[in-house]
Every structure is written in structure tokens, then in C-alpha cells.
Design a protein that fits this description.
2 domains, alpha+beta, about 290 residues
Length: about 290
């Protein structure tokens, strides 16, 4: 006859209260945020190794391996300090991200339109100068694996910074710039190349890299051709080529779900373009006078 191995648990009846439900939800939230923190980083395989060691030590404890059990009991109190040292970069980034979310959430929401304008204005300038550029905008799926392949910046996104990064003589002009919200996370990043045989043979490595990252993630890529100066936008493995700056701004608004809030505001890109044109006209007049 089968007997329950834990008779004292058979008589236990769980009683859920509001506090216990809240406690469970908070613990689940902490675990979820922790998994988001380590997802796509070098910490993920390290955590897998740590988990395997914990399981092995637990099995050793159940198997009454006294020497190994004593060793684990001696080392375990100091393991927390080792984990802090190993994951110090991830912990620092998490605290910085938390601080930005608490203090700059409203500012970032109000500045989304200007962020779009900076990207569009930079793409328009690169198109006129036939400067190759690749800007990848992160959405729901994290791009930290590709960020770690480049040079970390964590700088505020601006037209001037994009123009500096993609200047042909700049050391970081090769590769992609990855944008997270209103910040440039990294530059000179390596991206997976698309192997889609249906793509045009006229598309080079920059376009295939911009399309390739959208095949594996939900990111949005803005690509400027160095040969033709054409502007392209890629999402979901599909590319739309030779788009105008206005069309680019509209597509970015649609894809990043902020287009509806931009229609009632002024268009800083237009004023910036007019200022650039006026500066060029002044320079040409000075040249004629000389």
C-alpha cells in the first residue's frame, strides 16, 4: 500500500492572503527583471554554469558526501562576493538603467520626436554626401549581444554625434550604431549578414547586415548607401529602398509607435535643413566674392 512520504505535508492546506499574493508577484517581478538583465549577455552562460554547480553540490549533499559537503559549506558564504565581482558590469548597468527610468522617463517621452528628427536629419545629410551609414534601433528584443561586439558609448543620441561617428575618417565609421531609446549604446558593432537569396545582388554588406539583424530581432535598421546615397529602412527581414527623409520619419514613427504624438508638434528637422541650406548659400556667396 502506498504511503505518502511526507505525512505532515498531507495535512497542510495553503492559505493565500493578499500579502502572500503580493509577495509572490514581487518575487516573480524580481526574477523576471533579473532574467531580462542577463538575457543576451555573457552572464547568461555563466549563470548556467553556476546553476549546474549548485545542482551538483545539492546531489552531493543528499548522497552524504561529507568532504564535498564540508567544502561547499565553507566556500558558500563567500560566493556572494565572487558573484558581485563577476557580474559587476551587469549590476552597474542595471542600476544606471533604473536611475534613468525613474528620473528621465518623462523627458525621454517628450523627446521622442527630436530623436526621430536627429536620425532622419543625419540620414538626409549622409545621403547628400554619399556617406555610408547603418543605424539600428532597438525595440522589444534586446540587442546586447551585438552591442558587446562594438565599442560601448552610452551617449545621448544627437545629430552631431551621428555625423561624427560616420565621418569617413573616424575610427568608428565601420560597422553599425545601435540605438536604445534616446541613447547610442555602441558603435562599430558587427551584425549578422542576411543569407536571403531573394535579395538584390546590388545590395552590399552594409545592407545585408542591416537586414540580417531585423531577421533575428524586431529591430529597425536605417541604411544609407555609400555608392548611391539612397536611404533604406529594414524591418522584419524586409527592406524598403530609396525612401525620402519625410517617408523615413513617417515609417520610424509608425514602427516605434510614436507617430501619432508627433503630428501636433513643430518639425525641427525642417528648420535644421533650412539652416544648413542658408549656411551653404552664405558660403557660396563668400566664395564668389573671393
Amino acid at each position: 500500500m502506498f504511503t505518502f512520504p511526507f505525512p505532515h505535508l498531507s495535512e497542510y492546506k495553503p492559505y493565500l492572503t493578499t500579502g502572500s499574493v503580493l509577495d509572490i508577484l514581487l518575487v516573480a517581478l524580481v526574477i523576471y527583471e533579473f532574467l531580462l538583465l542577463v538575457r543576451g549577455t555573457r552572464a547568461a552562460p555563466m549563470l548556467t554554469g553556476v546553476g549546474a554547480l549548485v545542482i551538483a553540490f545539492y546531489v552531493a549533499h543528499l548522497s552524504n558526501l561529507r568532504t564535498l559537503d564540508w567544502l561547499v559549506g565553507t566556500i558558500l558564504p563567500y560566493s556572494i562576493f565572487a558573484l558581485i565581482v563577476i557580474f559587476q558590469a551587469e549590476i552597474r548597468q542595471a542600476l544606471a538603467r533604473l536611475g534613468r527610468n525613474l528620473t528621465l522617463s518623462r523627458a525621454s517621452m517628450n523627446g521622442d520626436a527630436e530623436i526621430f528628427d536627429d536620425i532622419v536629419l543625419a540620414a538626409s545629410t549622409f545621403s547628400q554626401d554619399q556617406t555610408g551609414a547603418l543605424v539600428v534601433i532597438e525595440r522589444e528584443i534586446g540587442l546586447r549581444t551585438y552591442i558587446e561586439s562594438g565599442v560601448a558609448l552610452d551617449a545621448h543620441l544627437s545629430y552631431d554625434l551621428l555625423a561624427t561617428l560616420f565621418r569617413p575618417s573616424a575610427p568608428l565609421h565601420d560597422g553599425a550604431v545601435i540605438v536604445q531609446k534616446d541613447r547610442i549604446a555602441a558603435a562599430a558593432c558587427f551584425l549578422p549578414l542576411s543569407m536571403n537569396p531573394l535579395l538584390s545582388t546590388q545590395l552590399g554588406t552594409r545592407h545585408r547586415a542591416g537586414i540580417g539583424v531585423t531577421e533575428e530581432t524586431d529591430a529597425v535598421s536605417v541604411i544609407v548607401s555609400e555608392e548611391t546615397g539612397g536611404i533604406s529602412i529594414a524591418v522584419g527581414g524586409q527592406v524598403e529602398r530609396d525612401v525620402t527623409p519625410e517617408r523615413l520619419r513617417e515609417r520610424l514613427g509608425e514602427l516605434l509607435a510614436h507617430y501619432g504624438t508627433q503630428r501636433g508638434i513643430s518639425h525641427p528637422m525642417s528648420s535644421s535643413m533650412e539652416a544648413m541650406r542658408s549656411q551653404e548659400s552664405v558660403r557660396s556667396q563668400r566664395g564668389d566674392q573671393l
